[in-house]
Amino acid sequence: SPTVYKAIDDLAKLSAQCMQLRSPLTTCEKLVASDHTLYLSWEYDVDKNVSRILGFAKVGRKRLFLYDSEMQTYEGE
């Protein structure tokens, strides 16, 4: 739904502003092209007949590069 996409993108922009980032880490366009999953927390206001997205969490696999005790790089899982 275009309305949900816009709400997610708007919330991502606000999140980026709070973290002082140049651009959002999450966009619907990026989500559609990835294998990540987005979980939404939302509420419905019966009196106003409107839904509000309260927040979201994006989960997925990511390649992490870590350091061992000898400062050698290795790929984590």
Automatic annotation (TrEMBL):
The keyword Acyltransferase applies. Residues 1-77 form the N-acetyltransferase domain. One of its GO terms (cellular component) is microtubule. Keywords: Acyltransferase, Transferase. It holds the Pfam family Acetyltransf_16. GO terms for molecular function: tubulin N-acetyltransferase activity. The keyword Acyltransferase applies. InterPro entries: Atat, GNAT_ATAT. This is N-acetyltransferase domain-containing protein.
